[in-house]
Specification:
- The protein has 3 helices and 6 strands.
- Helix 2 packs across helix 3.
- It has a 3-stranded antiparallel β-sheet, with no helix packed on it. Strands 2-3-4 form a 3-stranded antiparallel β-sheet.
- The chain has 134 residues and is of the alpha+beta class.
Length: 134
């Protein structure tokens, strides 16, 4: 929670009204009869990522599929191209800040800079990585 407004960081909010987000939320609502929530969005993005990687590397070794997955640029209806970090496998994505009634802002905020990818300002960057698995 942030400040006295009760802002909460969420992956997705059905109240987000930019970048095609209303169409994404309406599609799920038509299909299952409820708005898309913060748990539905990652499942939707996982499906999109797998389809993108399978399209780029339809046949071949697992390494080719993994490379295609890491190199994929995905549209998550958040206004920027998203993808996966090479060093820890995390998805680069903006985070929505919501008060429960609407999306107040997204992070990273405008003006935050990074030498390679602005989304890498969220979380541990490559030089700070704690994950030694990759």
């Amino acid at each position: 929670m942030v400040g006295d407004a009760g802002l909460v960081a969420v992956a997705w909010s059905a109240k987000f009204e930019r970048y095609g987000a209303p169409q994404v939320s309406r599609s799920l609502a038509k299909l299952v009869g409820r708005p898309m929530g913060a748990l539905d969005w990652p499942a939707w993005m996982a499906g999109k990522a797998l389809v993108a990687a399978a399209s780029a590397a339809p046949k071949g070794p697992a390494a080719a599929f993994h490379k295609a997955l890491v190199e994929a640029e995905l549209d998550g209806s958040k206004g920027v191209a998203m993808g996966f970090r090479r060093w820890d496998g995390q998805m680069r994505q903006p985070v929505m800040l919501s008060d429960g009634q609407s999306v107040i802002a997204t992070a990273p905020a405008d003006g935050v800079l990074h030498p390679k990818n602005t989304l890498d300002t969220l979380g541990a960057d490559e030089p700070e990585k704690l994950c030694k698995a990759r």
